[in-house]
Structures are given as structure tokens and as C-alpha cells.
Amino acid sequence: MPPADARRRTLEYGCAIIAIGLLAGAAGAATTLLLHGIEHLTYHYRFGDLLDGVSDSHPLRRALGPMIGGALAGCGWWLLRRRSPVPKLSTTIAEHRRLQRGPLAADAGLQVLVVGSGASLGREGAPRQLAAVLGDAATARLTLTPRDREILLACAAGAGLGAVYSVPLGGALFTITILLRSWHPRVVGTALITSSLAVAVAAPVTHLDHSLHWPDSTLSYLFAGLAVLIAPLSVGIGIAFNRITAMPGAQLTGWSIIPGIAAAGLLTGICSIWWPQLPGNGHSILVVSIDTELTITSAFAILLLKPVLTALFLRAGAVGGLLTPALATGAAAGSLAALLINHVTDVHVNTSALALTCAAGVLAITQRAPAFAALFVWELAHPPIWLLAVFALAAYGAHGLWRRTADTG
């Protein structure tokens, strides 16, 4: 290739990196604003987070809000899928296929609608899809190689995730270890730049607030030993979560997805009358786990109900992420374990720390990426820096035990 062409392609790739980062941040900000608007409309509150809105709302609104939102989203998906199937983003990128921008963008909007109205699904899918769509449109005229295009679109998806949670390193590592599974310097550099830019662009909306607030509590370094002991529990919860959310059986299709998603929403709403932490992606469960507001009964109920409700939405035909529902399930399991230990023994276990440690272990199983799981959990709460090593120990311990179990099974 002539040097002039090489310089032009390098310049175009550099411009594409900047454009991807800026647009991913815009996508993260837009989906965050829309999500919060739908949450406020569904539960009729003005201040506070979703848990405050659900807790203060009338029981009838709690029950019917997710049902109505689910029915509207189901109607949208029915109309959308009648025209064209919506391809899976990661598969489209990996196979170097052309992105169907319209269907992917519409699908992202419907994901925000159903999650904002209380569905037990993750919110990270929508900004990832919208960021990839915007990035693809912005770089369509550039002379990029298929590999460069794959890297840029995967980085757009990871940066979109980083923007909504204000986790620049987590967003970059999501691209590196899950979407591309490559530590090539070109991949690492592009992922870090785009994710950092996206988080900065979305800052006026997210205010760079940590998703979780770590309480000021003392914690012994001996807690690291508990991270190893908790690994079997993380593996069991992670495997159970995967099996429940991927239960064999036909997903609803056609017009039946409208009553199907509405019914899943109604059941979620009814359950929220007793457990207001259940609606939404799982952030509310993480909050009460960190703030040690769960009882043994509520932790056990949430541990059972969160993956089941998530599976019901998926079976009904809804689309959404599984990242935060898995985190929330792991946090509930860790909280339950800590509460039981503190109840039956004289040993005091830090409930907040064990909840996050178990969440990291479960996420390592569900995402098959222990490095991402440990860093993502740490970035969400920003506890003492040494706990990152504890989370990594829990994530790699659970992942290693799971791999050994799978190999011998």
C-alpha cells in the first residue's frame, strides 16, 4: 500500500475513534434521560431513584405500571418484527455483516420502554445498540478494513455501556474481554479512548456519580479469605441463573408477545407490592444490598424471584440485558449468606462487602469474563482499592471452579 494511502487510513481511523467515543456518549446520555423519564411517568415521582419511586407509589400503580409498559413495548416489538427480524448486535459485528440501523435503533428504544416501566431486564443493551448504530452511520463513508470496522463497532457498544454506568475501564474491558476477546494493542487503545470519551460526554446527564455508594465501614484484610470460600456459592448461583434465563422452550412470537410481556409485567408489579426492589434492571437490589437493608426473608425472596421474573420477560418475547439482573441475583445471594452467618454465629461478616464479592463471582460465570466482572463491580461502588483484588480473587476463583466443573461434567 502506498505511504499516502496508509497515512490517510490512519488519519481516518483516528477520526473514527473520536467520533465513536462522542456518539457513544450521546447514546448513553439519551437512553439514560429516556429511561428516567419513563420511570418517573410509570411510578409518578419527581425526586429520588427508582426504589424511592416504587416504594412511595400506590399498590395499584405498582401492579399496573409494568403491565401497561410491557403491553406497549410488546405492541412495538410485534410491529417491528412483522417488518424485519432484529439481528443480534454482537453476532452482526463478529460476522462483518451490515448493521440494520433502523430495526436496531427501534429495538433499543423499546428496551428502554420496557425496562423503564419496571421489567426485570438489564438496561445496558439499549445504549450499546444505539451507540453502534450511530457509530456505523458516522463511519460509513470511511475506507476502513473489515477488522477495523469490527473493532470500532464493538468499542462503540462497550463505550455505550461505560457511559450509562460511568465506568470507563469497565466499558473498555467489556469490549476487550467479551465482545472482541483480544488484547491486541489496537483493540485496547481504541477501547480505552472511546469508553473514556463516552463517559465524559454523558457526564452532564450522569454527573459521573457512582452507581452505588460504598458505606464508610471498617473491613479486615482477612476478608480476602472469605472470597475464596464464597466461590462455590457464586458458581451455583451463576449456573442456576444461566439455566433459568435460558430454559428450553419456544419464545412467544407474533401478537402473543403483547399479552405475554404484559403478564410478566403484571406479575412483577404484584411482587413489587411486597418487594419494591424487584422492578427494573436490578440496581435497587444492589443499593439495598450495599446499604444492608435486606432481611433474611427479603434476600431469599429476591434471590428466587429476580432470575425467574427475568426469564419470564425473555420467554414472553422481550429483549434486554442480563448483566445487572445477574449482578443483583449475586448480591442477594451474598447478602443472604452474610445475614445467615451473622444470625447463627458470633462471627460478624460485612454484608455489603460479601454482597459485592458474590456479585462479582456470579457475573464472572454469567459473562465468562472474570477480569471484567471484578473491575465492573469495583467501579460501580468504588470501595477501598484493595477490595478490587478481593473481587478479582472471587471472580477468578468462581470462574476457575466453574471451568473445572464443566470439564469434569
From TrEMBL:
<keyword id="KW-0472">Membrane</keyword>
<keyword id="KW-0407">Ion channel</keyword>
<protein>
    <submittedName>
        <fullName>Chloride ion channel protein</fullName>
    </submittedName>
</protein>
<keyword id="KW-0812">Transmembrane</keyword>
<dbReference type="Pfam" id="PF00654">
    <property type="entry name" value="Voltage_CLC"/>
</dbReference>
<dbReference type="InterPro" id="IPR050368">
    <property type="entry name" value="ClC-type_chloride_channel"/>
</dbReference>
<feature type="transmembrane region" description="Helical">
    <location>
        <begin position="295"/>
        <end position="314"/>
    </location>
</feature>
<feature type="transmembrane region" description="Helical">
    <location>
        <begin position="219"/>
        <end position="241"/>
    </location>
</feature>
<dbReference type="GO" id="GO:0005254">
    <property type="term" value="F:chloride channel activity"/>
</dbReference>
<keyword id="KW-0813">Transport</keyword>
<dbReference type="GO" id="GO:0034707">
    <property type="term" value="C:chloride channel complex"/>
</dbReference>
<feature type="transmembrane region" description="Helical">
    <location>
        <begin position="253"/>
        <end position="275"/>
    </location>
</feature>
<keyword id="KW-0868">Chloride</keyword>
<feature type="transmembrane region" description="Helical">
    <location>
        <begin position="12"/>
        <end position="38"/>
    </location>
</feature>
<feature type="transmembrane region" description="Helical">
    <location>
        <begin position="63"/>
        <end position="80"/>
    </location>
</feature>
<keyword id="KW-0869">Chloride channel</keyword>
<feature type="transmembrane region" description="Helical">
    <location>
        <begin position="321"/>
        <end position="341"/>
    </location>
</feature>
<feature type="transmembrane region" description="Helical">
    <location>
        <begin position="151"/>
        <end position="180"/>
    </location>
</feature>
<dbReference type="InterPro" id="IPR001807">
    <property type="entry name" value="ClC"/>
</dbReference>
<keyword id="KW-1133">Transmembrane helix</keyword>
<dbReference type="InterPro" id="IPR014743">
    <property type="entry name" value="Cl-channel_core"/>
</dbReference>
<keyword id="KW-0406">Ion transport</keyword>
<feature type="transmembrane region" description="Helical">
    <location>
        <begin position="385"/>
        <end position="402"/>
    </location>
</feature>
